[in-house]
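Researcher: Batch entry, complex prediction.
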Amino acid sequence: MEFLNALVAILNYVVVPATAYGAQLALGALGVTLIYGILRFSNFAHGDTMAFGTGITIIVTWGLQALGIGLGPLPTALLALPFGIAITAALVLATDRVVYRYYRKVKTAPVILTMVSVGVMFVMNGVTRLLIGVDEIQFADGERFVVAARAFKAATGLNEPLAIRTTQVITVVVAGLVVWALFWFLARTRTGKSMRAFSDNEDLALLSGINPNRVVAVTWIIAAALATTAGTLYGLDKSFKAFNYFQLLLPIFAAAIVGGLGNPLGAIAGGFVIAFSEVGVTYAWKKVATYLIPNWEAEGLMQLLSTEYKFAVSFAILIIVLLFKPTGLFKGKSV
Amino acid sequence: MSTHQPSAARGGKIRAPLLFAVMAVLIGFEGMTSGWNGAIGILNMGLISAILALGVNMQWGYAGLFNSGVVGFIALGGLAPVLVSMPPTPGAFAAGGWQILIGLLIAVAAIVLAVWLNGRLAGKARVLAIVAVLVAGFFIYRAVFDPAVAAVQAINPSALGYLGGLGLPVLLAWPVGALLAAGAAWVIGKTALGLRSDYLAIATLGIGEIIVAVLKNEEWLARGVLNVNGIPRPWPVPYEIDLQGNAAFVERAAALGLDPVTASTLLVKLLYTGLFVAVLGLLLWAAQLALKSPWGRMMRAIRDNEISAAAMGKNVTRRHLQIFVLGSAVIGLAGAMMITLDGQMTPSSYNPLRYTFLIWVMVIVGGSGNNWGSVLGGLLIWYLWIKAEAWGPQMMDLVTANLSEGALKQHLVDSAAHMRLIVMGLVLLLVLRFSPRGLLPER
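Model: Structure tokens for the complex:
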């Protein structure tokens, strides 16, 4: 019984939230890693792309709610997501046309492109704030829980509750579908194969007649879709606040580097590594320890780091990887 | 940074004096129209921004290093005035101050030991030993550190609750701020330099966030979000209230046709201006000398072609570390000056958009690689940043003048303040695209 209680506590406070958060980070890191692999720069505007896409999705959600259209138990935002993706894709394609294309033509150093992405970040951040403001917004509707805490306690007779929110399940399911679709696309379709070829060796790909403009456009569309999806899922799970999305940049970059920049599989693994370490290190383990070690009352909360320092966890993992395995867990690119 | 050199910038030799004259006219116009108090306020922060831009220019302009954690180094520099010049909290060191320091020493010792082991051992033993040292070190550190922190924070929490400073003159804090930032830069540079160029960008993004988080949460250090107020003023700057009580001063102000309140605030601001100009002048002189020296030519050679510089026997990673530390020290110095000017430490005000990326805009617009350009960029962009705050709503009022009252109009008017982010982003993009060498190109 004690053991089961401890297990449920770990599930409830660590495994479930970290899985959802990991899926969100993985989607974000996939976008960063794809842009790195094909356009060959670190996109600092990615966090604000997520914020912009989520902002659009929220506005469309409000519109649908006003019209009385919903998905029943599922959040309306899922219905609004395709609109968000379409508009975000249009925005990043326009940005590429106006901003990035020139630098590809003159073949500037990647670090200049990163600097350019900072300019794009500023603009996108401002646009998002103009659109939707800086306040915290909750936009999840529909059924709140798949497994409710009280019902779980009543059904099992355990002391510890287990609550699984609808948004957490949706996050994992949607992320799974998106990742499956992306890998299928990269592995099976002609465009996907040309993207991988372009990422592996640009010159060779160009020689074999791959149209670079097409590859770049498809990359931006996929990145926009990934960013909007990740942002919306994060917003549904927690809440939407433009500044939080900027701060997600660090864990997302850390996930991409830990996995190996330019390696999609690594980005997913990296997302979960970061999420589980972040939640695990900032969780107060006192309760679990009290269940597992009989007749012992822990002193303090047994929390390794307070939650304000969760960014320090991403950072520490990043530094460890940089020191010991600079190309990441899965072999990434080194330029 | 661009390798191709377009025709020399128009204006040649008189270009820089001309642009600085324009800047002076802008400040003068501000003084005439909205009052000298505000104008000198903008100038003072502009001077600090110029020093910040000078520091970032060393890293980016001389060496092509991308530091995206400028905000962290500014914040670390800002810690120095608190640690150096605030009066010590009575009884804090006896209650737990020494114990806190011992705890921190234990943490550092564990890390140093782990690094040393990393060089000595190999294979599985290395991993096991390092993990064991770090885990044990962490728990000992927490056991020593936590109770001490609680004891210090329990001392008069509404007014103090922190260690306090050393009670020394605040001018001493400026070089200390530089040292603090330099130390952090050395640690981060040692790990991230020599790897791929973007790694430094991402690692510094992290260190920036962490330094700000530490300042926000460690109340024993600088009261966290409770802020530290009343940081003493530097040596020549008096307090307004003393000036107003000084009969000679009031008489002189009256002779100039000023009331004592205005005269005292103006004098205080002007004295700060004098201090900042002196520091900026000194730094600029040193930076110009360095840039023209063989060392400066070597830095630029490394920036323009790392491989050929390495082939000439230059240690690229060492030189990068050197310039990264130097630049961060200048940033830390400016951070300490800023807190001295404000007279208070408010960690929650350290926003990366404002304190990292805006400084970048200053460097790029001014002309990366050119010290005078950074100074101009710092002054100009700070002026625009302040003015854009007022211009945004004014423009929005104009745009929405014909719109009927309603939610849309209200929303547009409310959000106009965010326009300046868009303006800064556009300025950065336009300069990078059409004039990558900036207003005052590198020679």
